[in-house]
Amino acid sequence: MSIDIDTARKVAKLSRIRVEEGDLPALAEKLSSILGFMEQLKDVDVEGVEPMTSVTPMRLKRRVDEVTDGSQQAAVLKNAPDAREGFFAVPKVVE
């Protein structure tokens, strides 16, 4: 797929990127090469290939999924400008 200058201009506008008129042909060429590479990826046979999260095989650390207070309440509330009864106190905004 080939990107023309008008499409490159539209992509730049949608991306909120200011591109000078003289730079649009180079941008269109770069976008076309990116799309060409993506087309090549369609041809790769990935049948039987397991998805991976890293290039090195490793098991993720696991922990018991249990709810705790984190034992940090006092340290967190120490930074609050106003804390009452173990909670952040905020000004009333709705009557």
From TrEMBL:
**What SUPFAM superfamilies does this protein's entry cite?**
Glu-tRNAGln amidotransferase C subunit
Q: Where are the transmembrane segments?
A: none
- Name the domain of life: Bacteria
Q: Which InterPro entries match?
A: Asp/Glu-ADT_sf_sub_c, GatC
Does the keyword section mention Nucleotide-binding? yes
EC main class here is ligase
- MF annotations from Gene Ontology: asparaginyl-tRNA synthase (glutamine-hydrolyzing) activity; ATP binding; glutaminyl-tRNA synthase (glutamine-hydrolyzing) activity; transferase activity
Question: What function is annotated for this protein?
Answer: Allows the formation of correctly charged Asn-tRNA(Asn) or Gln-tRNA(Gln) through the transamidation of misacylated Asp-tRNA(Asn) or Glu-tRNA(Gln) in organisms which lack either or both of asparaginyl-tRNA or glutaminyl-tRNA synthetases. The reaction takes place in the presence of glutamine and ATP through an activated phospho-Asp-tRNA(Asn) or phospho-Glu-tRNA(Gln).
| Protein's name according to its UniProt entry | Aspartyl/glutamyl-tRNA(Asn/Gln) amidotransferase subunit C
Instruction: Tell me what organism the protein belongs to.
Output: Pseudotabrizicola alkalilacus
Taxonomy of origin reads: Bacteria, Pseudomonadati, Pseudomonadota, Alphaproteobacteria, Rhodobacterales
